[in-house]
Amino acid sequence: MVDVMLLAGTRPEAVKLATLAQALDTRPGLRPLFVHSGQHPGMVEQALAQFDRAVDGWLEVPPRRSGTQAELISGMLPALDEAMRRYAPSAVVVQGDTATALAGALTAFWLGIPVVHLEAGLRTHDLASPFPEEGTRQMISRIAALHLSPSPAAAATLRAEGVPTERITVVGNTVVDAVLTIAARDLPARESALALLEMGVAEAGEQLVLVTSHRRESWGEPLARTLTAVRRIVDLHPQVQVLFPAHPNPDVRAQVETALSDVSRVTVTEPLEYPDLVRALRLATLVLTDSGGVQEEAPTFGTPVLVLRDTTERPEAVTAGCAWLVGTDVDLIVTAAGHVLSGDLRAAPAANPYGDGYAAVRSAVAIEALLGLADPASAADLQTATG
Ligand code: UDP
Questions:
Q1: What is the pLDDT of residues 55-88, one digit of tens each?
Q2: What is the total count of domains within the chain?
Q3: Which atom of ligand 1 is nearest to the CA of 96?
């Protein structure tokens, strides 16, 4: 058996790696090993549980005081070094653009363990936005041995940067696999506020607007403008109910609660468990978000998205007519939301441009090939699995 370490420290990494772990389970000779970096304690476990998966190993990292990237990464590096020497995986998979992904890629690279980068090749080409993620993913691209790209455009970006074609596989985004897996289970709402909103939509013709915003570049003024826009949307549209699952970051939470706690028809909750988030995405008439993952998930249900960012490394939904980049200009958000709520602006009835639900199986087959384990049946399996 050959161990493949999957490293996660945040919610989106857990969601996007969970289906890869499931796919690796089905490959003879490969064994996924889920390691939690400790970056966001609690979030990884909560997300994985929805896929009937548990963490196999935790890093022993010192408690954080300053909250800086330097403190976070310098705390993880020795623990990652120890874990990778102990488990001796044949490959380490890192996902996206987090501090965990960077620290994991560096450590594996230094130990001579091949780095597999899932969701490789996303770019805004602006190191300041998103910060520090744009720099992080560019750095990982320089040392990865296998680049699993979510789209042909992302693969083209990597080739333009000099990454050899044979090191890149276009797999789609595993978040689409995740959202389809969870939606198919159709679990009833766990969060009571969501259950009530579902009744309101079904029985009273209400319209749900799902809002999430937590990214670093949104903190402070941009988030304040988004919250003003939310208040105006509620004022202007008496049938609208807003659901805002607030990120646990204490500053973000405090700002959201202060601005919205007294507004009727606005419900601020704890982060939703993933199946509830998927239910809300499916039910919503409109999504306002700065989240990468949510932008990628919403097109599965044809739910229109207003992206609360000035640039996006995920242009596919905008190009496909499922999302609009509005930034955090209050008037622009309110006007665009009005068009969606009145039905003037609809998401194009396109397939989700981020994937077809088979990204994990393609990734597992590419990892097998990287490790020299590909057997002739792999190509046939892939053909059968992906139609
Ligand atoms: N998510 C969730 N519960 C929530 C909000 C988001 O399960 O209350 C999921 C969401 O569906 C997506 C992932 O978390 O799969 C996105 O994470 P986040 O917005 O934290 O990060 P980003 O995608 O911006 O990196």
A1: 999 998 999 998 899 999 999 999 999 999 999 9
A2: 2
A3: 25
